[in-house]
């Protein structure tokens, strides 16, 4: 498995996560199209937030980055949030 963590901080991050919370059904439907998706978590930290995507392989994680980027460009262009800090790598342990 392979995971990608996207952390949004700074200008526009709070507004971005407020909008994403309002549109969570749309985000759910969009992310479910990612091949090999194992899990997706969206965490609101109050001043921004983090998304955690786990896929069966790196190709799925790469697809999740593309889908997320396209969704944000299409739905939040008026917010002007800073680009996310992206952390990714192979999953060593996952407990369900």
Explain what you see.
There is one protein chain. The chain has 96 residues and is of the alpha+beta class. The protein has a single domain, classed as Alpha-Beta Plaits. It is 38% helix and 29% strand. Strands 2-3-1-4 form a 4-stranded antiparallel beta sheet. Strand 2 and strand 3 form a beta hairpin. The mean pLDDT is 93. This is Antibiotic biosynthesis monooxygenase. It comes from Pseudomonas laurylsulfativorans.
Radius of gyration: 13 Å
Biggest beta sheet attributes: 4 strands, antiparallel
Q: CA-to-CA gap between the ends? A: 14 Å
Compute the number of helices: 3
Please state the average pLDDT score: 93
- Following the backbone from N to C, one meets helices and strands in this order, namely EHHEEHE
How would you classify the quaternary structure?
Answer: single chain
Task: List segments where confidence is low: pLDDT < 50 over at least 5 consecutive residues.
Answer: none
The CATH architecture name reads 2-Layer Sandwich
Query: Could you say which overall geometry the principal axes of the C-alpha atoms support?
Result: globular
User: What is the SS-derived class?
Assistant: alpha+beta
How much helical structure, as a percent, in the residues? 25-40%
The side-by-side strand order for the widest beta sheet comes to 2-3-1-4
The CATH top-level class label: Alpha Beta
Q: How many structural units, i.e. domains?
A: 1
Q: Give me the CATH fold name.
A: Alpha-Beta Plaits
What is the number of beta strands? 4
User: Which strand-content bin applies to the residues?
Assistant: 25-35%
């Amino acid at each position: 498995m392979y995971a990608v963590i996207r952390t949004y901080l700074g200008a526009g991050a709070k507004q971005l996560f407020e909008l994403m919370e309002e549109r969570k059904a749309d985000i759910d439907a969009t992310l479910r199209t990612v091949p090999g998706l194992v899990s997706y978590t969206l965490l609101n930290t109050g001043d921004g937030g983090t998304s955690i995507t786990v896929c069966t392989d790196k190709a799925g994680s790469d697809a999740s980055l593309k889908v997320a980027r396209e969704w944000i460009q299409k739905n939040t262009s008026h917010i002007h949030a800073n680009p996310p800090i992206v952390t990714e790598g192979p999953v060593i342990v996952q407990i369900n």
